[in-house]
Specification:
Blueprint (H helix, E strand, L loop, with lengths): L1 E5 L3 H12 L3 E6 L5 H9 L3 E4 L4 H4 L4 E4 L8 H8 L3 E3 L1 H6 L5 E6 L4 H14 L4 E5 L5 H7 L4 E5 L2 H5 L8 E4 L14 H8 L11 E5 L3 H9 L5 E6 L7 E5 L2 E6 L2 E6 L8 H16 L4 H10 L8 E6 L2 E5 L6 H9 L5 E5 L12 H7 E7 L4 H7 L5 E5 L2 H11 L5 E4 L12 H13 L2
Parallel strand pairs: 1-2, 1-4, 2-3, 4-5, 6-8, 6-9, 7-8, 9-10, 10-11, 11-12, 16-20, 17-18, 17-20, 18-19
Antiparallel strand pairs: 12-13, 13-14, 15-16
């Protein structure tokens, strides 16, 4: 069996290790450069690879191809492979065929990393032997190869879900939907929504779909499509007979006739969106039979996510917050919504077709100055120049932070929440967030 892998990143290398363990003839091909740490792993495991090219004769003799999620379906090599009738799968699909572990799949436009980490924290604290993978940490295929866990919490992007065929999570979560990555979906929001809902396509009556019942796009999709899984909604606005809802600043969940109550004041994470993330994670924990006392304790001691509304430092009574993970408008909406003080907002990067109008009311109410950090800022300036008195353009993170410090007064907040991808000036949103933290520490 010849397994060809396209892409030499985390999911590609993890799949190569799984393929090797299964006794396949494995070959990995990356059109770009492979990072040195991954090359070392490939060499140690005696896996053949190439970089900066795709050699057709080494790829077209594959029985099966695993395509990394970053490679679009339209890329010429993928199109050619499919034309030759070669099966092209995602890492999640391939790895799921070789594990008996129960999986909890979490997708959505925002909140999925926090919900995934929080869910994993609840299940692990409850004594389950549970791994965490997908869009986060060590790849799912790699962990399946090591075969250590009885269950997994998987953060799943639409790109990962595009490549599934039979993958079936026992519990699926859709946190929310807003336009994102539309460049990969022919700029059709509906295509992106359909991709997200692939998470439930193989579920049966024994499985569960947990979703945000306040989300218009989710509700519309559920009205038009049949889902076999048992539906469990959560809501901040409606009282639900089954599911999770909010009443008098208290989260109430009713799952399998088991009631759970937790005041929102006791949550470790702040902000309305985190109440929703906590509802989703709690629902999963109850379905997985975690004790209520453990759930309560774990919700109150959770550490949060790096680069997501992460408090960095308070300098001269100005709070600096790193929300570099906000790579779309909707994520920045949550960030601005949770600001309680006048805010100097650092924004910008690679625009993925953003519509800034939905931020207008929040910017008017909360933002005193904007620092644009990007190669091309015209859209941001056009959108907000008439709303905010001070708009400054910069081209480097340390400059952005120094300018923000000058603009901020005692009691203000400086918020990095870019609403854009990072690739114009940084390697990744993590790199952007770390540079921000370093610049703040150097003030």
């Amino acid at each position: 069996m010849r397994l060809v892998i396209l892409g030499g990143g985390e999911s590609g290398v993890g799949t190569a290790i799984l393929g090797k363990k299964l006794g396949y003839d494995v070959f990995l091909s990356d059109f770009g450069k492979i990072k040195n740490n991954y090359k070392e792993i490939l060499l140690i495991n005696k896996i053949e690879w190439e970089e900066e090219k795709h050699t057709p004769e080494l790829l077209f003799n594959a029985d099966i191809v695993m395509k990394s999620p970053g490679i679009p379906d339209k890329s010429p090599i993928v199109v050619q492979l499919k034309e030759k009738g070669i099966s092209v799968l995602s890492e999640i699909e391939l790895a799921s065929r070789f594990t008996k572990a129960v999986t909890i799949g979490i997708t959505g436009s925002n909140g999925k990393t926090t919900t995934t980490l929080l869910t994993h924290h609840l299940l692990k604290s409850g004594g389950l032997n549970v791994g965490i993978a997908g869009n986060i940490g060590k790849s799912f295929a790699w962990q399946v190869a090591e075969d250590k866990y009885d269950s997994y919490v998987l953060e799943l992007s639409s790109f990962q879900l595009d490549g599934i065929i039979d993958y079936r999570p026992h519990i699926a979560v859709v946190t929310n939907l807003s336009p994102d990555h539309l460049d990969r979906y022919n700029y059709e929001y509906q295509n992106y929504i359909d991709a997200k809902f692939r998470i439930t396509m193989n579920q049966t009556e024994e499985d569960y779909l947990i979703y945000d019942a306040d989300d218009e796009a989710i509700n519309k999709w559920l009205e038009k499509n049949t889902v076999k899984a048992q539906l469990i909604p959560f809501s901040l606005t409606k009282k639900l007979e089954k599911g999770a809802y909010l009443e008098n600043n208290t989260i109430i969940t009713n799952i399998n006739n088991e009631k759970f109550v937790m005041p929102t004041d006791n949550l470790a994470l702040e902000g309305k969106h985190n109440v929703k993330n906590a509802m989703a994670a709690t629902t999963v924990a109850q379905l997985m039979r975690i004790r209520k006392a453990t759930i309560r304790e774990s919700l109150s001691d959770f550490q949060g996510v790096e680069h997501r509304l992460e408090k960095v430092l308070k300098i001269q009574n100005v709070q600096y917050i790193n929300d570099s993970k906000a790579t779309n408008v909707n994520a920045t909406f949550y960030a601005l919504d949770s600001m309680n003080t006048p805010t100097v907002w650092i924004v910008g990067g690679v625009d993925k077709g953003n519509d800034y109008t939905e931020l207008m009311a929040l910017v008017r109410e909360k933002v005193k100055a904007i620092v644009c950090l990007g190669v091309d800022n015209h859209k941001i300036i056009d959108a907000f120049a008439n709303v905010v008195d001070v708009v400054v353009e910069v081209a480097a993170m340390d400059e952005a932070v120094k300018v923000a410090q000058k603009l901020a007064e005692k009691g203000d907040t400086v918020l990095l929440s870019p609403a854009c991808a990072s690739f114009d000036l940084f390697e990744s949103y993590e790199d952007r967030g770390r540079q921000f933290k370093l610049a703040v520490q150097n003030l």
